Amino acid sequence: MNQLSNHKARGSALTTLVGGIVILLAVLFFLVKLANSNYFSNVEETTTSATETRIMPAGSLAMGDGTPIGERTGEQIFNKVCIQCHAADGNVPNAPRITNNGEWAPRIAKGFETLFNNALNGFNAMPAKGGQADLTDDELKRVIAYMTNQSGGNFEAPAVGAAASEAAASGETAAAASPATSIDGKSIFDTTCVACHGATSAIPNAPRITKNDEWAPRIKKGKDALFKSAIEGYTGPSGSLMPAKGGNTNLSDDEVKAAVTYMVNESGGKF
Ligand code: HEC
Ligand code: HEC
């Protein structure tokens, strides 16, 4: 009886010992794995991108993927910076919201240079560069073009990686090049004019597409008068403003004429 219990005790002591050794080996095994892993990051072995992110000046835009300053796309910048106030569902007073054509239309009508200068220097509650001081001029142009082009505008942005091209953003190049072969008035309407002339637009006095009665007195003025108003801009008797080329100075005269023709023909006219 006594011997039996002694035997049992020795057995369980042995089990404990073996178990202890197994656990010890397991712990050693994991310690060795840990020492060889990159858990404690080795400076020489980190990626360039991580290094770039680490050496960025304080307050600069950490894109996570280490995109260098100057090369960030409009979309990247929007989603990091401008979205704070210009989000589609934002509620910052007066900040025009992305994809909200009605809110952007009067801004777009100011022309790209004005928007750029106001975003660069600040404008009322709009902080200079949206508060992101390290944005380059091209980056700022890119993000303005990104925002406005999602909101009824049609601006050209400086390409990423290309040399700074002032002309591209200010629209000096875009239009003239292509001769008026097959201009699609509808697509111009859909990108530039719809913000104010859409069938459900709430812009005062802007004649709305498909509303024949709103267009009838305009159509009476004749084709040339309407082309002139649309190309050069026009202020109505009540002071409402039709901005030159709908605010999109990238458009050629022929493109504006095509958009007028499209609108008029959808609204009881025959140009
Ligand atoms: C802290 C909030 C805030 C941030 C961040 C911000 N904006 Fe704005 N932004 C505003 C407000 C408010 C207005 C409207 C100002 C007014 O018309 O009184 C505005 C207006 C603008 C306008 C129209 C200016 C005009 O002439 O009508 C542009 C363009 C613009 N923002 C671009 C940007 C860009 C690009 C960024 C990101 C780099 C950005 N904003 C980030 C608040 C912000
Ligand atoms: C920012 C708003 C806005 C945009 C964008 C806009 N328009 Fe207008 N447009 C107006 C307003 C407002 C009027 C009416 C002015 C008035 O008579 O009071 C008008 C009037 C017109 C007229 C009639 C002019 C006349 O002599 O009676 C034509 C034609 C016209 N727009 C064409 C266009 C075309 C083409 C586009 C796009 C390329 C365009 N508009 C984009 C606001 C806009």
Automatic annotation (TrEMBL):
PROSITE patterns, alphabetized: CYTC (PS51007)
Residues that span the membrane, as ranges: 12-32
Keywords: Electron transport, Heme, Iron, Membrane, Metal-binding, Transmembrane, Transmembrane helix, Transport
GO molecular function, one term: iron ion binding
All residue ranges annotated as the Cytochrome c domain in the record: 69-151, 180-267
Pfam families referenced in this protein's UniProt entry, alphabetically: Cytochrome_CBB3
Keyword Membrane tagged: yes
SUPFAM superfamilies the UniProt entry points to: Cytochrome c
PANTHER family: CYTOCHROME C5, PTHR40942
Protein name, entry field: Cytochrome C
